[in-house]
Amino acid sequence: MHIAIAGNIGSGKTTLTGLLSRHFGWTPHYEDVEANPYLHSFYEEMQRWSFNLQIYFLNSRFRQIVEIRKSGKTVVQDRTIYEDAYIFAPNLHAMNLMSTRDFDNYLSLFELMSSFIQPPDLLIYLKASVPTLVRQIQMRGREYEESIRLDYLKSLNERYERWISGYKEGKLLVFDVDRINITESREDLGMVIEKVSAEIHGLF
């Protein structure tokens, strides 16, 4: 089974991936941030490195999905391939940080890849306001994230809301990160686990 966690930068995807994997005994698949050769360069010069970064993510996520389906295990994945294609790449294009030529090339590649994969059995979306995202980004203290622009986070949030409102590919759970704290409140974490468990049992 494939459970995927979606959400903007700083919404808590990695934290929830770890907590769910420990509770249910699932195999976690994390976004490989530290090994990404383009991420630091991208935040310093977005226009120059946007296409390279998105192609790296597309390749990495496609490989993950292939591995997940081959493994036969229940896997919880930190971020999905759909977020790259429906949110991050079009957002970069709309902000004139990716050329139309590169964006069309990217979409063509995504469409080919997506024809070979299945959507997750359960998608969990972590919804968060920009102030919450900023606070959580500052708390984790990644140096290259210090230059993330507020308008960039805001436009990503707007795209997430549009994508999630039309999501029909499978089961969906939405948690409002502004209203819960899964790291400090056992009650909040218990509520999340209970809702995820109910959805999972409904899949069998």
Provide a descriptive summary of the structure in words.
This protein has 204 residues and is an alpha/beta fold. The protein has one domain (2-201): 3-Layer(aba) Sandwich (Rossmann fold). It is 57% helix and 12% strand. The chain is built from eight helices and five strands; from the N terminus they run βαβααβααβααβα. The chain has helices at 13-24, 39-44, 46-71, 81-94, 100-114, 130-140, 150-165, 186-201, and strands at 2-7, 27-29, 75-78, 122-127, 171-176. It has a five-stranded parallel beta sheet, sandwiched between helices. Helix 4 packs antiparallel against helix 5 (100-114). The longest helix has 26 residues, at 46-71. It is globular, with a radius of gyration of 17 Å.
Topology:
Elements: E1 2-7, H1 13-24, E2 27-29, H2 39-44, H3 46-71, E3 75-78, H4 81-94, H5 100-114, E4 122-127, H6 130-140, H7 150-165, E5 171-176, H8 186-201
Parallel strand pairs: 1-3, 1-4, 2-3, 4-5
Helix pairs in contact: 3-4, 3-5, 4-5, 4-7
What key phrases describe this protein's structure?
204 residues, alpha/beta, Rossmann fold, five-stranded parallel beta sheet, 8 helices, 5 strands
Number of helices: 8
CATH level-four homologous superfamily name: P-loop containing nucleotide triphosphate hydrolases
- Widest sheet, order of strands: 2-3-1-4-5
Largest sheet: 5 strands, parallel
Strands, total number: 5
Radius of gyration: 17 Å
- In N-to-C order, the SSE pattern is EHEHHEHHEHHEH
What is the class in the CATH system?
A: Alpha Beta
**CATH fold topology:** Rossmann fold
CATH architecture: 3-Layer(aba) Sandwich
- The average pLDDT is 91
